Amino acid sequence: MMIVQWATAIAACLSFTSGESSQQVPLLAAIAPDLSPLPLAQDNTQRILPTLVPQVDAAPSLTPTLFDPTAPDAQKCPGYKASGVTESDSGFTAALTIAGDNCQAYGNDIADLVLEVSYQAKERVNVRIYPKYIVPANQTQYLLSPQLVDQPEWDGKTTKSSSDLELTWINDPSFQFKITRSSDGEELFSTYGHVIVYEDQFLELVTNMIDEYKVYGLAENAHDFLLGNDYNQTYWAVDAGNSIDYNSYGTYPWYQETRYRNGKPSTAHGVYARNAHGQEWLLRKNTITYRTLGGSFDFYFLSGQNNDGSSSAVTTIAQYVSGCIGLPAMHQYWTFGFHQCRWGYQNISVMQSIVKGYKDANIPLELYRDFTNDKVTFPVEGMREFIGSLHANGQHYVPIVDSNVYAPNPDNASDAYEPWTRANEQGLFIRDPTTGEPYLGGNWPGFSSWGDWLLPATHVWWAEELAKWHNDTPFDGIWIDLSEASNFCDGSCGNGRLNENPVHPPFLLPNDPLQMNFNYPLGFNISNATEAAAVSSASAVQASILSHTTQLPVPTTITLGRIEPTPGVRNVSFPPYVINNVQNGHALGKGAISPDATHNDQYNTTEYELHNLFGYSISNATYHAILQIFPGVRPFTVGRSTFAGSGKTTGHWGGDNTSTWGSMFLSISQALTFMMNGAPMFGADTCGFSGNTDFDLCSRWMELSAFFPFYRNHNIKASIDQEAFRWSSVAEASRRVMQVRYSMLTYMYTLFYYAATEGQTVMRALSWEFPNDPSLAGTYSQFMLGPSILVTPVLVPNVDYVKGVFPGVGEGTKWYDWYTLQPVSAKPQENVTLSAPLEHINVHVRGGSIIALQTPGYTTDETRASPYSLLIALDSNEAASGSLYLDDGVSLVQNATKLVKFEYSNSILKTSIQGSYHAAPPLSKVTIAGASCLPKSLSLTISGQPFEAAEIDVVYSGGVVTITGLEKFTPNGAWEGEAEMKLKF
């Protein structure tokens, strides 16, 4: 459907396999068979297409405002005075009037504002500031509609006196406010000493921060987990792969702060700023400055408090997710299997060979994806047969759909593209403001348009197109890409040029001639010196040829800087305040739909207001479209550009990373921030998307990603093949770690149940689970899966060991090696050296945990049908607890569920059951780690019926009690009745 035309812009590419157990391919021949410096135009596979040349509007040539020392200081503006306070049951309202002459720092000052303070829930206070006089035509410039993004409201019962938080304010010299904790007066947020700035294209608010504050979140970013006190987070959704320390695909304007207090319990709280405009958060030594290009102040302050008066990061996160943005979706069980994809599998035969390669290597493969639906290389009947074979094996298929829609060439009847035509006939595309016609930007297939998600009819059209496509290609979910929305040219560059379609993007593609990628990870020259030398030589040859080659035009660079605001005028293309956009020149229209492009709603809303919501909107539309195709089934979507609340409908991957150790390391920080964002179905492009991996990096990354909810290997054309079976060492590492992952799938699924019902996190930072240890504040080289599993990955090349800490040991926490179940000997805050051969990742179980496991199979279906076992890891009091959630793994609304809770204390294991869902597999084994000896006797009662202990096999070895033979007592399912097992030691 949406990708039919992509095939014209993508051709087959050569690839080779590097590293251990690989066959050497003559690299020089691969990049240039005759080594002659031919001009690129002589290649007939690509240059038969016209080239999409970017168009650039004129703009000032200055530096970005963030680094412009001559830029106005908005804090010299007069601020506002509050008056006319009106109290209500939930809070108060007041008028804010500008306290002096117009400032005109980066826009037109708005003289009259409304202040609303609402104690919305015991743990949450909302502060809204917006213009008093908003004409309907300007409404979306200032107010973010609750129909677009959830807007929390008063719970109907909370008052100032019952709130965890209190807002106080002064009017000297202008309106300033602060948020404190009601119980002890701890100041959490304060604008004291600073003015509020409110202009039509610029808002600013500054809060004071404590010394060496610890702040997390403000995603999406590729950055350290602990943000630091000299960091800038820009929000403007951008198609910029591996954008380190800059803006990226998503917008999550909220942070969580933890305060360590010299031996006392730490405290935590959170701040969410509900605004979708382009914006920046400037973290400085003792302040955080919040700036946006429009909208309103709509702050939600979260106490993070528990019922006992303490506060924690995990509670703060749960308050944000459940109270502000909405609980994440519960995903189908099969989506937790291993996914394989690549940009550029050439045809069905290649895809079949990939599936067979995984099967022959005995590496579990759940899902295959990423294709171009070309009628020659991917014929309908062939696709149906291929996908049918996947379904027969319990596997699944999820294709990629780009966010742009190809605009057909009107002069070429064979170029007809009905999805675009049907949408255009209904007026469903974002419009060019100069012509009123569909906006025509550029993307992979050529000149393209983008759907207007403000229109209900656009959602209907999208659903119908996906349904038509599903009839030919029976997919199981949809992967949405380029949803920033990405535009490969500047401006509506297709106007008057549709007769040139399809056109080549205005840059060289990875599969274009002389575009082989020769980047390899750090340490490749050590692990594979021979091939590293060949790569170096080939790279030099390619560079030499390119230096004498006529190449495609280089897109024009916009160098954009501050412009003076014009009274009474809004410049949405080049606003006076320049956010630090990672794109060249920092322009908002660079690599995106122009900010002045117009939607079809009653307010003629522009992209200036809605840019950061495009990915959020298309993911929502896709979710509901899939729900129509599969009624009653949980839709599976994965989106690239997301916004606060996207977890309700879509999963997410970390985007176009690189095959480097640094990208692998930062993927952990990315994952943890998405756990904070209520979007737990997160994963990285394992082994790296661009560049070439090697067996060392790919082995370690396959091991690491096995503990991410979304587990996928994905890479680009012109890089080497990196499927896990390509190297014997990667295959072995993958087999071993997938045995671990698949055995604990039911544990991960239970974690998702608590995420979807309570806002809990799936992956967890050590500092969240051990909040009173300041040494863990910035740690993300290790992480936890739920409360019970500690993962210590290798993150550097060419080593066979790793160092890690075992948090909580000073307070009595016990840890057990996953593989041997032997206890760990470690001192508080000690970096323990752990053996880590290439095929091994260190995993430890926290004492006090009971984890339900299943025998791993080749697919999630096989695993789900296999017998259960229980792992009981005793704490220092010889006790443990845990839970297991069960449902059919598919349905959006369940007919039946079951929650099994486990308790072990005083040598008695008890299970309690809520719900009626029937799980057929029996319980085969119980393992107890940390036992002192073999139990002298054992008794078992299930649903009140006792069983003979003589029929149960009990073995003791090295502190581990293993009880087997239990399946004979649970032939109708492990959890059909409450049970009690008594052991006497």
Name of the CATH superfamily of the domain at 764-984: Golgi alpha-mannosidase II
Helix content: 10-25%
CATH architecture field of the domain at 764-984: Sandwich
Low-confidence stretches: 1-49, 56-62
What overall geometry do the principal axes of the alpha carbons give? globular
Strand percentage: 15-25%
Give an overview of the whole structure.
This protein has 985 residues and is α+β, with helices and mostly antiparallel strands. Among the domains are: 72-218 and 253-325, Sandwich (Immunoglobulin-like), CATH 2.60.40.1760; 764-984, Golgi alpha-mannosidase II (Immunoglobulin-like, Sandwich), CATH 2.60.40. The protein has 17 helices and 47 strands. It has an eight-stranded antiparallel beta sheet. Helix 13 (695-705) runs parallel beside helix 14. The chain is globular. InterPro entries: Gal_mutarotase_sf_dom (IPR011013), GH (IPR017853), Glyco_hydro_31_C (IPR048395), Glyco_hydro_31_CS (IPR030459), Glyco_hydro_31_TIM (IPR000322), Glyco_hydro_b (IPR013780). Residues 328-751 form the Glycoside hydrolase family 31 TIM barrel domain. Residues 759-851 form the Glycosyl hydrolase family 31 C-terminal domain.
